[in-house]
Amino acid sequence: MGLRGVDPALVDAAKGIGMSPAARLARVELPLAWPPILAGIRVSTQMLMGIAAIAAYASGPGLGNEIFRGIASLGSANALNQVLAGTLGIVILALLFDAAYVLLGRLTIPRGIRGREH
C-alpha cells in the first residue's frame, strides 16, 4: 500500500488549498501512508527472525545454532535445554523488536489516524 494507498481525494484537497508538492508529501501523504509502511516493516522483521533461526542449518551464522546443537545431541542431558534456550532467545528477540515497532508507531502515528485503524 504505502504512498499509493493514500486517498486521491485527500491529495487533491491538499492541492486545492494550495499546498506545495513537498508540503503535501510531508503533511498529508506520509502521515497517512506511515501506518501500512510500519506494518510491513513489522512483518518483515518477524520473517527475518524466522529466517535467521533456520540460517544456522546451512552452517551460516544464525539464531538457531543453539536449537540445532540441541537437536544434534538428542539423548544427552542438556539437549532439551539447548533447544529451549535457542527457541526462547528467538521468541524474546522477536517480541522485543515487535514491541519497539509498536512503540515507534505510538510515537509517530498521529492520534486521529491511529484511531481510524481500529
UniProtKB/TrEMBL annotation:
Keyword annotations: Membrane, Transmembrane, Transmembrane helix, Transport
Kindly list the residue ranges recorded as spanning the membrane: 79-104
| Superkingdom of source | Bacteria
Note the topology in the membrane.
Multi-pass membrane protein
Primary residence: membrane
Question: Would I find Transmembrane among this entry's keywords?
Answer: yes
Stored InterPro entries: ABC_transp_perm/SBD (IPR051204), MetI-like (IPR000515), MetI-like_sf (IPR035906)
What CDD domains does UniProt report for this protein, alphabetically? TM_PBP2 (cd06261)
- Coiled-coil segments: none
Give all residue intervals belonging to the ABC transmembrane type-1 domain: 1-101
Compartments annotated for it: namely: Cell membrane; Membrane
Q: Which family does it belong to?
A: Belongs to the binding-protein-dependent transport system permease family.
- Which PANTHER family is this protein grouped with? GLYCINE BETAINE/L-PROLINE TRANSPORT SYSTEM PERMEASE PROTEIN PROW (PTHR30177), OSMOPROTECTANT IMPORT PERMEASE PROTEIN OSMW (PTHR30177:SF4)
What name appears for this protein in its UniProt entry? ABC transmembrane type-1 domain-containing protein
